[in-house]
Amino acid sequence: MNLKEMFLVLKYLGIFLICSLSSAQDCPTFSYPINGATDVPLDATLTWPEVLGYNGYLLSIGTTPMGNDILDRKPVGIDISYTPPLGFPDNTRLYATLSLVPFDGPPIACQEISFTTIQTTSAPSCSILIAPDNNASSVTIITDLEWAYAPGANGYKLSMGTTPNGTDLVDNLDVQNVLSFNPPEDLPQNSSIYVRIVPYNDIGTATSCPEEVFTTSFALYVCDPYVNENTGELVYRAPQINLTNIVGICSDELPYTITTDDDADGFRWYLTNSGSEESLISQSRSVDISIPGRYRFESYNTITTDSGIIECTSSKLIDIVASEAATITAIDVVNFINGKTITISAIGDGQYEYALDNRDGPYQDIPIFNNIPHGPHIAYVRDKNGCGITERSVDRDIVSNDFPAFFTPNGDGINDYWQFVPPPENFESVIDLIFIFNQYGGLLKQINPNDKGWDGTFNNKVLPESDYWFRASFLNRQEIIGHFSLKR
Question: N or C: which end of the chain has fewer CB within 10 A?
Fold first, then answer.
């Protein structure tokens, strides 16, 4: 590594360390598992110490460094633990990153840890119903089934019937790797419903799983849609919710107001980060969001029946995710004869897409561009939630015109050496060596781009005024050949 390269490395390393220290002072370290842990249970709970003075945490989990294919910046509120509902994959190296959410400003990413889960060597154990409970009574006929995660399971088979061991409602249905089931039709009224849930994995299937039972109520009145006899149109008694499941906002927009245009008699907004516990925060069309996290929106219509006034309700869980403009950390260029490959590296708490040479796109999700013509280019990184576009010039190529056209080695201290002078712009290529030849191809001098250069002599003899040739070799691209003049 030459002095110039070493200086650049030290410069950027210093900047990185300063930024890292300033942003990581409050960052918590995972209490469990610790970095590098092995044989971590598949139903493990990630824990970390509480950090005061922040709005909460975002958690990402992936199968690659800085990955988020398992969990993508999930808002966990002020909770200091997280248990994956479907468990972790077995015998897998996982990477986990916490981000702190300040009261103002973008989230602060903390140091990543990695751990390896235990390898599954046997079939999973049985699961049990969570909702409805075993032996529950007066269960509505439009209920959904929920069951507990069975560690090591990667799927479940479900049977339902109106008699013990019956399958007249659902016959050994493989529902895949989920923990709930919405029956396609209403359950029978005032009936015993027998349920059996059998987990399985690649090793085998759970055995001797118990059958559980609950009893439905009479359907005196339900909020199901009905067909209008006069128009033939389907009429919904409960409101239809049009809000999306994920709302991306910019970190500098907090507090952020969300308003629904749904047609309903009433509305409720709940903060529901901690799972079963909810906090009512609004009873109007709008809600002011002060922190990212998980919220539940509920709208309802009131209907008068013989039994009194009831609410027909619809609800939806909504994740509020904070974004920010990207920071471009590097642009890597690999040169080929017919073009180049450009790879853009960017960081930030956002979902990003990438473009070259046009701020308006087209944009793509992958930061790699192939077969790009040689020459200057501009890279653009856009946050998908509209939190800004970051741009940076792609370092340009060195060309033959960047080398001096002449030099005058007459001893006056001005232009006495011929040497490559770096252009003022950033450039992507790194010169290795420069070779100087006479008109007949004879090698006169080999110089390093960090040396003084050539003084116009050969074997301590002064060479005459003439044209001379050079060949510059590079570490990462094709050679450049050109010529220059020696003048005295």
Answer: N
